[in-house]
Amino acid sequence: MIDHAPKKSPVLPGVASAIIWGLGQLLNKQPVKALFFFIIQVIIVMIEFLTGNYTNMSGGFSFRENGGFFLKGFWGLVTLGEVPRKMSILGLTDGDHSIVLLINGIIAILFMCILLSLYYWNIKDAVKTRKLANETGHTPKTREYLSELWTSMFEYIVLIPSALLLLFISVMPIIFGVLIAFTNYNGAHLPPAKLVDWVGFDNFVNLFKMPIWSSTFLGVFGWTIVWAILSTVTCFFGGLFQAVILNNKRVKGKKFWRTLYILPWAIPGMISLLVFKTLFNGQFGPVSQFLLDIGLTSERISWFTDSSNPNLARAMVLIINLWLGFPYFMALMTGVMTSLDKEIYEAAKIDGATPTQEFWKITFPLVLSATAPLLIMSFATNFNNFNVIYFLTEGGPVNSQYQFAGYTDILITWIYKLTIDVKMYSMASVMSMIIFIVIGSISAWNFSRTQAFKEEELS
To answer: HSE of 24 in the Cβ direction (CA atoms, 13 Å)?
Structure first.
């Protein structure tokens, strides 16, 4: 049977919902959906009205004085405040706190993004429903719509709560940290007594143009790369070496040796680091005293503080990190080796392969293929390995050519000093962005080249 009923334009409900949320649904004879969208609009208006000061605008409208959650949030994000607080006899006067305004502005923007998504859904739903009614001659009831929505969008509906938590707990701090890099938030501009201003790319320019900053950055960044590579490689091959030995048939009591070697990893790292720091203390450490007593040295060795020999401190940090890190790779590779197909080795022996050839041609490639993603993760972890550097050397020995950094400082410990010691939050934020770009780029590029990633793409 051909439906000769006149077709109604889907533009009208779309425009109606764009003006008043839910009005298009009401025109489509869906009162429950119309009420749902209309309530959302009412809530938005009420939040702005109740959090603002719209009842007292005798002196004209002001975003600072009259704006509510959204309008004042946007104003604060743009201006970062206009009136600093001052100390008086009665305490601090009323004024603006730039960092609070920045955070409130970010929250307002995130909420507005969510509301814009609902606004788009409201309009799209009104248009789509009218088109469906024109094609089928039937307007779905609310129950039918909800059933179809639950079936087609189940995965997204379940993910929405986690996505919202992720947005405000993880994404918001990242946005805040990025925006700080474009301000002059430092010791000379500390709220609430001083306001923070937007400075654009000045911090990035200063990092590379001012000699004291550029030389420090290049020196610290270079050592960070060297540290990340060497600490990862030494732990990887140290763990591989131990795993190969423990996997040998001639080794007795394998469970005992595995338990013994796993202890450095099982003990909290901070405790081990503080013990090593005491052992190798240049003034009263037992290691320096022992070497002095047996005559190997004529004076105490400053393992971590000798500015004339900074490579000694760097080598010590790498050695101690090897002690803490090799058990992880040992346990990982032991598990990989036990799962390797023994027939491969039997075929290699029949072909006359030596144990060395078996290792480099069979064991090592298979282990590397299985552990490559974790190796990349280990590199990223070591790039930001704050604990080992800070608890052992605190970035020392002192380097007079560096700005607030020492010879063993890596980017993350330098950032810590910039924030805690000298309150240069904006420059620390610039460093954080550089770390993110470097780690993200290297990890993404390397991981995309691993066999595990390629196999996942094929599947």
So the answer is: 27
